[in-house]
């Protein structure tokens, strides 16, 4: 849990168990790994169109839904043209 402290006030990418990809500023977290993101967006990947970003704003994600949290390199992210990226959406994780 203390490893999340270093990500507070930084842009992160979350990959959720249902395959969604959420990008936002980590505003906080608790002992159950629930996280609060501000200025968040869901990135929807498609093989036909570019990546669509859906604004979510302030967003709470339950810790048990999170598969991966990683810091986002803002320079590279801003330099990347998401409209040119084609990719299969991530499938949900099944246990």
Can you describe what's shown?
This protein is mostly beta strands. The longest helix is centred in the last third of the chain and has 6 residues, at 74-79. The protein is globular, with a radius of gyration of 13 Å. A hairpin with a 7-residue loop joins strand 3 and strand 4 (52-61). Strands 4-3-2-1-5 form a five-stranded antiparallel β-sheet, with no helix packed on it. The protein has one helix at 74-79, and strands at residues 11-16, 21-29, 35-44, 52-61, 66-71. Residues 1-75 form the Sm domain.
Q: What integer is the average pLDDT? A: 92
State the major sheet.
5 strands, antiparallel
Regions with little confidence, pLDDT below 50 for 5+ residues: none
Strand content: 35-45%
> Can you list the strand order of the major beta sheet?
4-3-2-1-5
What is the subunit organization of this protein?
single chain
Gross morphology: globular
* SSE series: EEEEEH
Query: What percent of the residues sit in helical stretches (DSSP H or I)?
Result: under 10%
Topology:
Blueprint: E1 11-16, E2 21-29, E3 35-44, E4 52-61, E5 66-71, H1 74-79
Antiparallel strand pairs: 1-2, 1-5, 2-3, 3-4
List keywords for this structure.
5 strands; Sm; 5-stranded antiparallel beta sheet; 95 residues; LSM2-LSM8 complex subunit LSM8; mRNA binding
Condensed summary:
The protein has 95 residues and is mainly beta.
